[in-house]
Amino acid sequence: MALKSTPVVFGLMTRLSRRSFSTSKALASKPMTVRDALNQALDEEMARDERVFLLGEEVAQYDGAYKVSRGLWKKYGDKRVIDTPITEAGFAGIAVGAAFAGLRPICEFMTFNFSMQAIDHVINSAAKTFYMSAGTVPVPIVFRGPNGAASGVAAQHSQCFGAWYSHCPGLKVLMPYSSEDAKGLLKAAIRDPDPVVVLEDEIMYGVQFPMSDEALSNDFVIPIGKAKIERPGQHITLVCAGKATDTALQAANELAGNGIECEVINLRSLRPLDFETIAQSVAKTHHLVTVEQGWPQSGIGAEICARVMESPAFFELDAPAWRVTGADVPMPYARGLEALALPRPADVAAAARAVLGNRISQAAQQ
Amino acid sequence: MSKLIPNAAKFFAGSTITKTAAPVVTTSTSKYSTKSEATFEIKPYKLHKLEKGPATSATLTSEDALKIYEKLAVLRRIETASGNLYKEKIIRGFCHLYSGQEAVAVGMRAAMRDVDTVITAYRCHGWTHLMGVSVLGVLSELTGRRTGCSRGKGGSMHLYGRNFYGGNGIVGAQAPLGAGVALAHKYRGDGGVTFTLYGDGAANQGQLFEAYNMAKLWDLPCVFVCENNGYGMGTSVDRSSASTDYYSRGDYVPGIWVDGMDVIATREATRYAIDYCTSGKGPLVMEMETYRYSGHSMSDPGTSYRTRDEVQEVRQTRDPITSFKEKIISRELVTPDQLKEIDTKVRKEVDEATKQAKTEPEVGTEELSGDVYYNNLEPYIRGLHPDAPLQHCEVVARN
Ligand SMILES: Cc1ncc(C[n+]2csc(CCOP(=O)(O)OP(=O)(O)O)c2C)c(N)n1
Ligand SMILES: [Mg+2]
Question: Do B219 and B206 touch, CB atoms closer than 8 A?
């Protein structure tokens, strides 16, 4: 297959440092950490709607295990910011019940690894009830917390639940990348009438991003189900979400130095999945690589590739699409091994080059 | 312990001065203990649905005293080393120290038999060592090196050893797992008892109550040991638990409250528990009241939810090592010099292990895809993309 587009070498690449990579308008002003953006979203929504309350382990007096809820207990008190015992199945169930009865709980999991203790309530109680009740019992709840691998915390504490939750009808699943994403998506989740899972990332909490004036306002809400093109490009499409967006953007920077322009699509929402934006991009670039931190089998990339197969986007491809994923192993603790278990920018760049270079047959023979 | 004459021979070498104030009869071997055993009173247990509790006094031989002291000292020293390695950024991620709680594990271990089994949570460095893993095996795991007992793949929270099933990072998960290990004891009829340790925070997890029920229903030889150190992360027991009488929370499972700062009490209670469980009466709950000196993990300063005074007060009045030391010296089971010798030996052992744990290499990259399965059925393990296949390997020989 011939390339429909030839890489162009750019003489001048403006390399912005990773930490200050602009994700919004040029007039973007104040930098803000993802943590503060989430905090602002919680604060604004609690102020806006009396029914909204936050519960979870250490969310109140300790200000949150990762300080996302800093100051909220002082401001809103015991009634609306509730420390729970370490009893995920119990408090998640209690939160869902409160949502049945018309409140708008935000249920924080200290990390999503512990949501597995409560997954029955997320799936069986939250996701399915509206359907089972023929639309009579809405479940306006948000489940949120850090997801995926932090550093050096090994197998039981390093897992991406993007594929798990986005598998399930009845749930909406969001995965913010930047501070604007974090604020706009969390606010949308809280206002949404359905159960929404917001998968944050501990490593991103402390990262600063510029916030546009618009994003600083009380009414800034990002529509659920819409992807964002973080970086336009014509040679290859990189689809990613959450922290993987950072990896993809770094890879895109690297590849741009070689004249390969990537279009980086930050999904923002895993369910609903904005396939239209992906298809349009593929129609332009004719090459696709997906990037995620989770395991490959039945993962987010697997879903995207399947949708391409089922659609006319398939005919737009000049080469098979590739998935860049976490390695198919539980997360090891040791620094050296851990680094090999998660995609780095160089792995994404290698995959992009392979797809553009059509080295698929070579790989298949290995 | 100024009342005693420590190592009189050395102390007064070349001198004719004698200290008459000393009430102790010193012999020519005063470097060593003068009494072979002594009996100690134990702070009363609290009982739940039990007629008779463990013995309220216990006899300790000088040999046992020395062994116990050494174990207490090693455990404390391992945690000091771990804390330092974490501060040096050589230990990564989470690192939960056991300092302050040593008497629980050391006393229990002293009563346990070879056939008995243990499972605990992530605060597991001390237990791992007591169950037979060398100091190097523990510390190298924390530094993620080849000589680590999990070859660097598990890290601080996931240590294992013979008859020791971890190191579990999921709060409360070890409770039914321990009951399962106990089921295996009963199934095989090997007479073993399982000790399942969990914290005061974990004590509220639903699965614990599921495990209590089945353990009682099926008379499993399982001792559910609640290490009540006052806090689950930043939450004190009264903010997490509607009843803080953890020893009674098994309802139909009988329970004992034990002073977990007294190694003699924990040993005696464990002996009783083994007796109870091996007589076919089913499970038991043991609450060990104890205290953790450090923050929840190294990243928690541990000062926002409790006062520094509180920590100081426990250190000064209830420290499991200091209090034991005072007891055995004042009862002349050991001399301060003997303990000093142990301290020196322990420091040397742990320091050497620490040094080695820093310099050992990590395991080879091929182990990233090792032991995913006991019996791997696929030619490759998928790597980060289709062009990066990994080879499954068997790091541990299959039997
Ligand atoms: C299911 C689950 N929820 C939450 C956590 C996070 N977490 C780890 S330790 C801990 C506190 C546990 O306290 P406790 O049981 O008293 O044990 P201690 O740390 O005091 O030894 C919490 C909340 C976890 N690891 N697993
Ligand atoms: Mg505790």
Answer: no
